[in-house]
Write a structure and sequence with these properties.
The chain has 211 residues and is an alpha+beta fold. Helices cover 35% and strands 10% of the residues. It is elongated, with a radius of gyration of 23 Å.
Length: 211
């Protein structure tokens, strides 16, 4: 039956001889196909991470739906692979997922069973962590916000976003300064080791000074 279906796709005919679009349905995806690839991109990325390498995936261009699906697929593969190692009684590798423009990747209304909320809630046992950056706090999943241990906020220019942030820890005490202060490097920081939010001036990274 599988061979028959494939032949139908190639010939653009169904079992009764009628016309069907067949292989032409796949033509819009031609630009995403790499004929020289021999392994699944998810396996390749995870193998790089296990060996201690940094993997940068540029999803700033392309179809938004494809961007969301691809990011979830890769994140799910990383989670499942690390959990498999953990369940076998071994230590998974330490992996940090950096998500830039997180409001485009991590949806607010996703079910708790989706990969990003699961990683935020249970990723620690698999030695997985998420670092995400966004200008839209309100667009991030509430479960992820609730499980965020370290928060760095520099400047927000929207009362709605400040109201959302004020729900967590004591950021409400800094609501006025968050919308007024625009000094470069001035941030309000909440860390896991500190019970309170503290204002901090972050200097520009200078390798010469460190030496």
């Amino acid at each position: 039956p599988d061979t028959n279906v494939l032949i139908n796709l190639l010939l653009q005919k169904n079992d009764q001889g009628g016309y069907i679009p067949g292989f032409r349905l796949l033509q819009p995806f031609k630009e995403y196909h790499a004929p020289n690839r021999t392994t699944d991109v998810c396996d390749e990325i995870y193998n790089h991470l296990v060996s201690g390498k940094i993997v940068i995936l540029d999803l700033s261009v392309g179809d938004p739906i494809l961007r969301e699906r691809l990011s979830k697929r890769i994140a799910r593969h990383i989670l499942q692979s690390s959990m498999k190692t953990f369940n076998a009684g071994n230590y998974p590798p330490h992996i940090v997922l950096y998500v830039e423009e997180a409001h485009n990747i991590i949806g607010r209304n996703e079910p708790l069973t989706e990969v990003w909320p699961v990683i935020a809630k249970e990723g620690a046992k698999a030695r997985l962590a998420i670092v995400y950056a966004t200008q839209e706090v309100s667009s991030i999943h509430p479960n992820i916000l609730a499980n965020t241990e370290n928060i760095i906020v520099s400047h927000l220019n929207n009362q709605h976003e400040i109201a959302e942030l004020s729900k967590y820890y004591d950021f409400g005490d800094f609501a006025v300064s968050l919308i007024r202060a625009q000094d470069v490097g001035f941030a309000r920081i909440k860390t896991l080791s500190n019970p309170f939010v503290i204002p901090v001036q972050i200097d520009r990274f200078d390798l010469a000074k460190l030496k």
